[in-house]
Amino acid sequence: MTKIVVTGAAGQVGTELVPALREVYGETEVLATDVRVPGTGTLLDGPFEALDCLDAAAVAEVVRRHAADTIYHLAALLSASAEQKPQLAYEVNMGTLVNVLEVARDAHCAVFTPSSIGAFGPGTPSDPAPQDTVQRPSTMYGVTKVAGELLCDYYHSRFGVDTRGLRFPGLISHVAPPGGGTTDYAVEIYYDALESGRYTCFLSADTQLDMMYMPDAVRAAIEVMEADPSRLRHRNAFNVTAMQLTPATLADAIRAEVPGFEIAYDVDPVRQRIAESWPRRIDDSAARDEWGWSHRYDLASMTKDMLTHLKAKLGADAGHRKLGADAGHGRN
User: Fold this and answer.
1) Residues 204, 272: contact at Cβ < 8 Å?
2) Which region holds residue 29: left if phi is over 0, alpha if psi is between -120 and 50, else beta?
3) pLDDT of residue 323
4) Residues 56, 96: one domain?
5) Residues 209-238: pLDDT tens digits?
6) What is the distance between the alpha carbons of residues 272 and 190, in angstroms, rounded to a whole number?
7) What is the pLDDT of residue 318?
């Protein structure tokens, strides 16, 4: 029976991945962990423990006690936050991954580690970015993602650890708030559309990036770990995507559902520079060929679903929300 430990579970991906994993494998089989303990939420519907993944002994003890055979390692500092604190980002993103890989090596666990379009850089072909291509990122976040991909490749080839992963695009979710990523505008815009009918975007109107709705991202993370290993020519950094968006096209889609919605622009030079270093579109044909990846949500269906869920959410909490955080987990 599959027994799973999820690190960084209180972040945007983990908040939705953990319930999905529990639905597939059983509530008690999936142990959620995070350095932060949430006060409420679905993570607490099953096993949860506080865990600092920089403490290698603590990681080993949690994996041993849970008798885990699979680790979903999501703990990380994200792109914009990483640029503000590059030394901390290197320590967290690389230190925790090395600890998890060493524990997996000793405990014979499989490991899922998310990478990102941030692993690409200005020298990468931008439309599309191939599966195998030049990776010279210009951000600390990107540097740690490339190094993480290589480390996972190394632990697989050198020690036989079953490492697998995805290069996620920007992820859009109605469950958890944004967490310090360059693509956060694509979440914030939906909240502001409902709360004020207006949004001021920190990227320019024509900044095109790959995006994916979180239900597709969660499904991809589970499917790649379930894939037949004999079919996998790649392992640790499959390109996956669903749609290419700009702030302007996303605003148009929202306007179709929220008439009169307005968007303005106040460009943040740091996040604009990061976004312009990433490809406009990525080629995910390797994932489609090797393990049958296929997205289900396009821009129109995602927008309808986001607005439906957020209307209920904002009604429940009277519009009070906290956007932004210093650290996040496995998003761009």
Assistant:
1) yes
2) alpha
3) 39
4) yes
5) 999 999 999 999 999 999 999 999 998 899
6) 20
7) 43
Model pLDDT, residue 81 = 83
The answer to whether residue 324 is domain-embedded is: no
Asked if the structure places residue 132 within a domain, the reply is yes
Distance (Å, rounded) from C-alpha 224 to C-alpha 235? 9
Predicted pLDDT of residue 327: 38
Using H for helix, E for strand and C for coil, what is the string for the chain? CCCEEEECCCCHHHHHHHHHHHHHHCHHHEEEEECCCCCCCHHHHCCEEECCCCCHHHHHHHHHHHCCCEEEECCECCHHHHHHCHHHHHHHHHHHHHHHHHHHHHHCCEEECCEEHHHCCCCCCCCCECCCCCCCCCCHHHHHHHHHHHHHHHHHHHHCCCEECEEECEEECCCCCCCCCCCCHHHHHHHHHHHCCEEEECCCCCCCEEEEEHHHHHHHHHHHHHCCHHHCCCCCCEECCCEEECHHHHHHHHHHHCCCCEEEECCCHHHHHHHHCCCCCECCHHHHHHHCCCCCCCHHHHHHHHHHHHHHHHHHCCCCCCCCCCCECCCC
Find the Cα–Cα–Cα–Cα dihedral 137, 140, 142, 143, rounded to 10°: 80
State the CATH number of the domain containing residue 110.
3.40.50.720
91 and 137 assigned to the same domain: yes
Report CA-CA distances (Å) from 328 to 34, 102, 234, 248, 286: 11, 23, 26, 26, 28
Residue 292 has pLDDT above 90, yes or no: yes
pTM listed for this prediction: 0.91
Residues identified as active-site: 141
Domain that holds residue 204: 175-211+242-280+296-316
Q: Count of alpha carbons within 13 Å of 74, Cβ hemisphere only?
A: 31
- Contact, 111 vs 137, CB < 8 A? no
CATH of the domain at 250: 3.90.25
Has residue 264 got a pLDDT over 80?
A: yes
Q: How many domains does the chain have?
A: 2
